[in-house]
Amino acid sequence: MFARSALSSAKVAVLGAAGGIGQPLSLLCKLSPYIDTLSCYDVVGTPGVAADLSHCPTKSHTTGSLPDAGAGSWPEGSEGGLKAALEGADVVVIPAGVPRKPGMTRDDLFNTNASIVKTLVEGCAEHCPDAVLAIISNPVNSTVPIAAEVLKAKGVYNPKKVCGVTTLDVCRANTFLAAHMGKDPSDVDVTVIGGHAGITILPLLSQTGATMTDEEREALTVRIQFGGDEVVQAKAGAGSATLSMAYAGYLFTENVLKAKAGEKDIVMPAYVESGITEAEFFASPCRFGPDGVEEVLGYGELSDYEQGWFDKMLPDLKAQIQKGKDFAAN
């Protein structure tokens, strides 16, 4: 058990804190014993979000920041600008952006969300260059390379500290496989590799020991890859996965903070700069430590079925990475 002092110094900034993911994510972070300061930032609404969260009886102090609008213009209880939100942050979680609607792919969000991520990461480069960035804004396959290029241009890029959050893919894989096996999802642990969109998501079901027919394996794989579409369609134009993504983002953030506090053997998937495939960025299990990603781990042996998906996925993933890099360059 850690002494309280080991858990009391972390600041987490949530950029996009008033949105569909940002609000439940901020609530979950408010409950974390690892967070001393919870900094909420968005273009609207954050003073209210922060005030609401501040009534939860947990130890973290909560602030709400809005974009700079000149001295003296801040609503009571808020702070000024992105600088105030980011200074001193240990982890910056970025769910900011527009959600998917029916018929849209994550890639359809590219132009709007790419610009948002670029602007926010420029702020991170200036105000908290040593923070771990946990990027949720879709399309993650492209926004993470954008973040990396922005940080390189500013001279502060550290590949250990730029992560795409793919935890939701693992949550879905564990949930769906557990239902198939009649187990508690906490007793299931599926390795999911690749990226965070459609066929670039590859669950390694062969490594779980689960018994299934070829048809069941295909159905589970495709459901995990396109699980987000279920939510988009069920919400019928009202948004995409927000609650489950907030939960996944919280799990990721909590584990980063546990590793920062000195807890050992923190291993979780992340979409990071990687040399284990031809793709410059790739999601696989990573070991985290006090400074972020300590080691990018391998993913073991693939079945023939999974190798087929892998070969199909890699060109798409590489193209999406290049799209992000080109956007950042231009």
Automatic annotation (TrEMBL):
GO terms for biological process: malate metabolic process; tricarboxylic acid cycle. PROSITE patterns: MDH. Keywords: NAD, Oxidoreductase, Tricarboxylic acid cycle. The keyword Oxidoreductase applies. Substrate binds at R100, R106, N138, R172. NAD(+) binds at G16, A17, A18, G19, G20, I21, G22, D42, N113, I136, S137, N138, M245. Residues 11-164 form the Lactate/malate dehydrogenase N-terminal domain. It catalyses: (S)-malate + NAD(+) = oxaloacetate + NADH + H(+). One of its GO terms (cellular component) is cytoplasm. The keyword Zinc does not apply. Belongs to the LDH/MDH superfamily. MDH type 1 family. PANTHER family: MALATE AND LACTATE DEHYDROGENASE, MALATE DEHYDROGENASE, MITOCHONDRIAL. Homodimer. This is Malate dehydrogenase. It comes from Triparma columacea. The lineage of its organism: Eukaryota, Sar, Stramenopiles, Ochrophyta, Bolidophyceae.
